[in-house]
């Protein structure tokens, strides 16, 4: 993991840096052009999520 990646038990969000996060006057954060994925066991971040079947 690097400093531009956030994860929890459900999701991994990559490519977070100052150019991809904006804050409005009320303090709300807006994430632009990030890379979200499910935190599955094979990602290596301790997640247990799995993709469903179509």
Largest sheet: 3 strands, antiparallel
**What is the rounded Rg?**
13 Å
What is the molecular shape?
A: elongated
Mean pLDDT: 92
Layout of secondary structure:
Layout: E1 6-7, E2 11-14, E3 21-23, E4 29-31, E5 35-38
Task: Summarize the structure in words.
Helix content is 0%, strand content 30%. It is mainly beta and 54 residues long. A three-stranded antiparallel sheet has the order 1-2-5, with no helix packed on it. Strand 3 (21-23) and strand 4 (29-31) form a beta hairpin. It is elongated and about 40 Å long. 2% of the residues are buried. The model has no long low-confidence stretch (mean pLDDT 92).
Which properties best describe this structure?
two-stranded antiparallel sheet, single chain, 54 residues
């Amino acid at each position: 993991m690097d400093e531009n990646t956030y994860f929890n038990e459900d999701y991994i969000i990559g490519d977070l840096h100052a150019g991809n996060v904006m804050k409005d006057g009320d303090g709300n954060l807006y994430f632009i052009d990030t890379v979200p994925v499910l935190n599955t066991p094979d990602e290596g971040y301790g997640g247990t999520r799995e993709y469903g079947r179509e």
